[in-house]
Specification:
The protein has two domains: 96 residues, no CATH class; 185 residues, no CATH class. The chain is of the alpha+beta class. The chain is built from ten helices and twelve strands. The longest helix has 16 residues. The protein is globular. Strand 1 and strand 2 form a beta hairpin. 31% of the residues lie in helices and 18% in strands. It holds the Pfam family RES.
Length: 378
């Protein structure tokens, strides 16, 4: 293949991705292609760069699963993606050297959390006993746990001033002061906490300008909770039967799915649980597992929890780690049509009459849209 080094690239993100991929134990050399000093890249390293930058880097932030927009393989060479930026020249160098092509990718629906359970609940909108059976199948796949006496739970409040350091200030807020959230609703009040302080800070979106108040609680009586982050997939014959993918979707997606999240919460409560454990939204980008602990009702007033300590917190350090990806495929996407298609996808999630066939038709529209050539940048 043609010689390529880390200095051959013009795009900042690709160059930085390449520097993270290569083995820096080797010395830099004068590249025959760009005549600059750089680290030589092997074919294997170039394929890793393709995957990290163009595939993983194209996953939209709003999707609830590993659903990239781009993919590559040897059958699509030289590829059908153009960016109309300096990225095109860099992409051509990599694809010519590896003989793979970058193309638009319509991910399997299960990657987005559209599983068989989701289809039955949302698209088919089954009701009555059949709906109860679906929820039972989902709930029975999750792990039941006991939070024993003495188990620590943290809760954080933020605001423009510090609240009084008493128990009632850190219990579930009175109903008149709460809005419907991911799992709480008018019929189901939720105490949101976590087993570690950092998760609390992430979930409250605490900033440097906030007053931050921390309350530490101790469990006063054993609490039976359902761990939605631990599921048994032994009965799943295909990815579409996996419960964890649907529950991941409900933990990560936006407000359009809150009604289904709230229904799940009610179903758990009806089965006699004191609460449930879920993945934190921010766990997607954390090196350790972040878990939320949600308890029903008013556990402090009900003497299920006892406050043991209160403190003011001050954020002393913030750091971000990040990866790179492409901005836009300017050569093929029509912004107005893409926006319209996005609105259709949002509407279909809320449409009780919609079916999987309707979703598949929209996916076909998406594939047709991304294959339609246009020189108008978005």
């Amino acid at each position: 293949m043609n010689e390529i080094c880390t200095s051959c690239f013009e795009n900042h993100g690709i160059k930085e991705t390449a520097l993270r991929v290569i083995n820096k134990q080797a010395d830099q050399v004068v590249c025959k292609s760009c005549l600059k000093n750089g680290y030589a890249l092997s074919s294997e390293e170039l394929l890793i760069i393709m995957n990290q930058f163009f595939v993983m880097g194209s996953i939209p932030p709003e999707v609830a699963g590993p659903a990239p927009i781009f993919q590559f393989n040897e059958y699509k060479y030289p590829g059908d993606v153009q960016f109309l930026t300096e990225l095109d020249a860099d992409l051509k160098k990599i694809t010519d050297a590896t003989r793979v092509g970058l193309f638009h990718y319509g991910p399997p629906l299960w990657r987005l959390g559209y599983t068989n359970h989701y289809q039955l609940l949302v698209f088919d909108n089954v009701q009555g006993k059949d709906r109860d059976n679906i929820w039972q199948a989902i709930i029975s796949s999750c792990t039941e746990e006991i939070l024993n006496v003495g188990y620590c739970i943290y809760r954080v409040r933020t605001g423009e001033n510090l609240p009084p350091a008493n128990s009632s200030e850190f219990d579930t807020p009175p109903q008149e002061y709460t809005k419907n959230g991911r799992f709480n609703s008018e019929s189901t009040q939720i105490f949101y906490g976590a087993s570690d302080i950092e998760t609390c800070l992430h979930e409250t979106r605490a900033s440097l300008s906030d007053y931050i108040m921390l309350a530490k609680f101790s469990v006063e009586k054993p609490l039976k909770v359902l761990n939605l982050s631990r599921t048994n997939e032994s009965k799943a014959s295909t990815e579409f039967d996996r419960v964890d993918l649907m529950l991941q979707r409900l933990s990560y997606v936006g407000k359009d799915e809150y009604s289904l999240c709230q229904e799940l919460s009610r179903e758990i409560k009806l089965r006699g649980y004191d609460g449930f454990i879920t993945n934190s939204y921010f766990g997607q980008a954390h090196k350790k597992e972040l878990l939320n602990i949600s308890l029903f009702g008013y556990p402090v007033a009900e003497k299920k929890l006892k406050i043991t300590s209160t403190n003011k917190l001050q954020i002393t350090s913030i750091a971000y780690e990040y990866s790179y990806g492409p901005v836009n495929d300017n050569h093929v996407l029509d912004k107005s049509k893409l926006k319209l298609l996005g609105e259709k996808m949002s509407d279909i999630v809320l449409d009780s009459e919609a079916s999987f066939d309707d979703v598949n038709k929209l996916m076909d529209e998406l594939k047709s849209l991304v294959s339609c050539r246009s020189n108008k940048p978005i």
